[in-house]
User: What shape does this take?
Amino acid sequence: TTNKEFAIKSSNDDRRNLIIRSSDSRCSKTDENIKYHTDYISAINNDNNIVFFYKYLMGLDGLDTFHTKPIPQTKYQKELIKSTRPIYEQFLEKFVSDFRSKEVVEITNKIYYDRFLKWREVYGIKYECSCGILSRNTNLLINKLPENSIMNIGDHHITMKKYDIIKLREYFKIPAEFD
Assistant: This one.
């Protein structure tokens, strides 16, 4: 048992699990709901049903090419996969979404980190990391896409990072405009 909203881990290449989500109306612990879930699990675990389902699957046309087809995923499974990504990747997706109409964003690590702290606060995420760790993890994730440039202000040199928003939108499958 867990208190996490998404207790199961899944990935984009998960072919072995069918992940479905129970109706919210069935989540409370009432006698009716307990009976519903008990009966549901019993029906799934019934040997006759398992044998029937197995034979059905083995008799499907095109089974020999099944492994070449896109992996079917439920909407819930897609949400589950998204929720189990590293925190810095979830933040980067939000960052890209915020700047989706731009081609490139230049920003200092400090400003990027401050945006991360604000995002973490807004979404109630408990995750501790330094500015350097956030920057390094982001760089590893996007294969060094940010390029460094130096901006001079008086005697100070400030390192700016360039984020290629177009490439990052493609990576996260974010449309250029809001739907």
